[in-house]
Every structure is written in structure tokens, then in C-alpha cells.
Specification:
Pfam families: DUF2975. It comes from Secundilactobacillus malefermentans. This is DUF2975 domain-containing protein. With about 160 residues, this protein is mainly α. The chain has one domain. The protein contains five helices and no strands. α2 packs across α4. The chain starts with a helix and ends with a helix.
């Protein structure tokens, strides 16, 4: 079991470092350079700042979800998967993905302004896809939480009858 969780932990670390490196560092710097260079010509400077803030908040929610997955992997290593300690991180992952969904739905007008100013409709499509991914993760986490809580209840009932 430790080999499998070790592989998953290494994958989580690599994925987290890649996200923080690309999204957390490069994109906001690029957006700020765009603000500084086109400040006199662009009338929607606030949209760039809003988009950078939206991206940064998404990275924070992602890292929070990764930390919760790490807690679940700890429970798997200790062979305590079907306990209440596993439901709490799944519930937190559900809330983090709901936050990402709501963030991108509320930030859709900002993405529209940036797409209109840059003549790049793909920005709106990317906003929609990230919101859809957040909604999918929210539903998946809710189903997993419900399934795990029913399995725990079933396990407790079986322990009482034996």
C-alpha cells in the first residue's frame, strides 16, 4: 500500500509544483507586464487585475484540495479509509471545487471583457471549461462523500451483527 501512496504523493508534489510555477508565477507576471505596457491604450485595466486575482484564488483552492488529498492518503496508509476522518477531507475538497466553480461563474464578465479587448474568444471558453470542471468536481466529491458515509454506516451495522 505504501508504494501506491508514495507514487500518488510524488504525483501530487510534481503537479502542485507545476501549477504553482506556471499559473502562480508566470501568468500574473505576464498580465502585469501587459497592464504596464498598454496602460494608455487599454480601457479595461481592472479586468486584467481581476483575471490575475481569479487565477491566484484558483491556485490557492487547488493547493488546499491537494492538502486534503494528502490527508486522505495518510488515512489510506494507516488502513483507516472507512472512518469519519476520511469524510471531512472529501467535504473540504467539495467546498474548494465549489469555490472554484463560483469564482469562474462570477468572473465570467471579467473574462468577457479581457476576451473582447484582446480579440481572443478562447478566454471565455477557458473560463467556461474551468467552471465546468469545478462543477464536475463538486458533484463527484458530493457523490463520493455520500457513498463513503453509507459504506461507513454499512460497516458499523455489520460490526454490530457479528
Amino acid at each position: 500500500m505504501k508504494k501506491q501512496t508514495l507514487f500518488l504523493r510524488i504525483a501530487l508534489i510534481i503537479l502542485s509544483l507545476a501549477i504553482v510555477g506556471m499559473v502562480g508565477g508566470l501568468i500574473p507576471v505576464a498580465i502585469l507586464i501587459g497592464i504596464i505596457s498598454d496602460w494608455s491604450q487599454f480601457t479595461y485595466q481592472w479586468a486584467y487585475i481581476g483575471l490575475a486575482l481569479e487565477i491566484e484564488l484558483t491556485v490557492i483552492a487547488f493547493l488546499f484540495a491537494v492538502s486534503q488529498v494528502w490527508l486522505i492518503l495518510n488515512q489510506i496508509e494507516k488502513r483507516r479509509v472507512f472512518t469519519e476522518l476520511t469524510i471531512k477531507p472529501i467535504k473540504r475538497i467539495k467546498y474548494a471545487s465549489l469555490f472554484v466553480f463560483l469564482l469562474f461563474v462570477v468572473g465570467a464578465p471579467i473574462a468577457f471583457f479581457v476576451a473582447q479587448a484582446e480579440d481572443a474568444p478562447g478566454i471565455v471558453l477557458m473560463d467556461f471549461l474551468v467552471a465546468l470542471a469545478g462543477a464536475t468536481m463538486t458533484v463527484f466529491s458530493a457523490v463520493l462523500q455520500k457513498l463513503l458515509s453509507e459504506a461507513i454506516t454499512f460497516k458499523k451495522e455489520n460490526e454490530l451483527t457479528v
